[in-house]
């Protein structure tokens, strides 16, 4: 190997290491992670108090709506949050209904991902974008419920979302005394950003679930969630870094989850862990994604599997989570390559453009 090539490899390795280890600065106040932890943790405490932890976990998923609180004036905040609460309930409902027709799960999730991503981009919904809507739909697809239990599950999630809206209201009353609201102006929508990107993202999200099902992977709902988390980044550099963060953070996070699962497992310890993890995640996610994923991993395992933990092998659960995440991240990386390829956009974009009515193009 020549000296020049060796120096280039060292420079490349140094650049990758810098991208992986850089902590970002943020102006996020500590009250925001605290209220986010309360929005997702209070339903679990209520469920534990009534000895129905599974009810609390379903409602806790709706509490994730709090994360969509914008920095705008109060009236706009509440309208956006109520719209997000409805959207999450709708996505969860469609996911639950898809559970009874497994062969329709991937097409249904593709449709949901396309539609939700379009709406999020058209209305300039900030991070986490369409992620939690797709997570709700994915968890719904693989929920073990009977047909007559669907209204109950949807009602629980909706109540959790409404509780999150209430917490966001009082949080906004406080925080708007400390900082000026930002304008709620919407950018001019474009065909590429709103329609074409959403179609490609939805197709790859659906493909990740279809591949996971074809491989008979357990708990395949993590594949589309990981795929979406990676593919929706704004640049190829960001996509590459995000998938590395996702895989590395998940690997370390599974070790942390293993430690948690070895502890005595009862309803109050689940509640305390969920609240603590939610606070840590929302504190770290705007600073370093891989560090946040370390704690996101046990948090989401408790959120999706908390009601059934203690009845199976933790090793099988953690192994399934890692391979589902790995598959989703790799499919998301492939989707990111396509999204940021000028040739791909020129060829497929022209085909999608022909399918869109002329009124919508403008």
Q: How would you sum up this structure in a few lines?
A:
The chain is mostly helical and 362 residues long. It has helices at 3-21, 31-49, 53-62, 74-98, 105-122, 131-141, 150-175, 191-214, 222-231, 236-262, 267-284, 289-305, 314-339, 342-355, 358-361.
Describe the structure.
The chain has 362 residues and is mostly helical. The protein has helices at 3-21, 31-49, 53-62, 74-98, 105-122, 131-141, 150-175, 191-214, 222-231, 236-262, 267-284, 289-305, 314-339, 342-355, 358-361. Helix 2 (31-49) packs antiparallel against helix 7, helix 4 (74-98) packs antiparallel against helix 5 and helix 4 (74-98) runs antiparallel to helix 7 (150-175). The protein has one domain (30-361). The mean pLDDT is 83.
SSE arrangement:
Layout: H1 3-21, H2 31-49, H3 53-62, H4 74-98, H5 105-122, H6 131-141, H7 150-175, H8 191-214, H9 222-231, H10 236-262, H11 267-284, H12 289-305, H13 314-339, H14 342-355, H15 358-361
Keywords:
362 residues
Give a quick account of the main beta sheet: strands, pairing sense, barrel closure: none
User: In angstroms, what is the radius of gyration?
Assistant: 20 Å
Beta content: under 5%
State the distance separating the first and last CA atoms: 54 Å
Number of helices: 15
Taken together, the total number of domains comes to: 1
The residue ranges in which pLDDT falls below 50 over 5 or more consecutive positions are none
Counting helices, strands and paired strands, the structural category is mainly alpha
Number of strands: 0
Shape: globular
């Amino acid at each position: 190997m020549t000296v020049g090539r060796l120096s280039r490899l060292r420079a490349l390795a140094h650049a990758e290491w810098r991208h992986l280890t850089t902590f970002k600065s943020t102006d996020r106040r500590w009250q925001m992670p605290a209220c986010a932890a309360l929005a997702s943790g209070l339903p679990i405490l209520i469920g534990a108090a009534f000895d129905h932890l599974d009810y609390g976990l379903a409602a806790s998923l709706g509490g994730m709506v709090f994360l969509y609180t914008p920095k705008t004036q109060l009236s706009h905040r509440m309208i956006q949050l109520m719209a997000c609460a409805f959207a999450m309930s709708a996505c969860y409902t469609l996911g639950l209904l898809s559970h009874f027709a497994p062969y329709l799960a991937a097409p249904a999730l593709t449709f949901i991902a396309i539609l939700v991503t379009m709406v999020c981009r058209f209305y300039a919904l900030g991070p986490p974008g369409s992620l939690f809507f797709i997570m709700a739909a994915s968890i719904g697809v693989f929920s073990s419920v009977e047909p007559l239990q669907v209204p109950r599950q949807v009602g629980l999630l909706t109540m959790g979302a409404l509780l999150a809206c209430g917490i966001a209201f009082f949080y906004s009353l406080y925080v708007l005394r400390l900082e000026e609201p930002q304008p709620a102006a919407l950018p001019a929508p474009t065909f590429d950003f709103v329609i074409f990107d959403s179609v490609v993202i939805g197709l790859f999200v659906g493909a990740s679930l279809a591949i996971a099902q074809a491989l008979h992977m357990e708990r395949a709902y993590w594949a589309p969630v990981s795929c979406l988390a990676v593919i929706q980044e704004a640049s190829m550099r960001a996509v590459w870094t995000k998938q590395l963060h996702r895989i590395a953070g998940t690997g370390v996070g599974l070790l942390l989850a293993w430690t948690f699962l070895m502890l005595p497992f009862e309803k109050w310890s689940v509640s305390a862990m969920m609240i603590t993890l939610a606070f840590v995640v929302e504190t770290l996610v705007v600073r370093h994604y891989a560090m946040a994923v370390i704690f996101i991993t046990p948090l989401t395992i408790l959120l999706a599997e908390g009601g059934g933990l203690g009845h199976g092998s933790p090793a099988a659960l953690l192994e399934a989570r890692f391979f589902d995440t790995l598959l989703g991240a790799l499919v998301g990386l492939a989707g990111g390559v396509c999204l940021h390829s000028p040739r791909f956009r020129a060829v497929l974009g022209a085909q999608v453009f022909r399918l869109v009515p002329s009124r919508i193009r403008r």
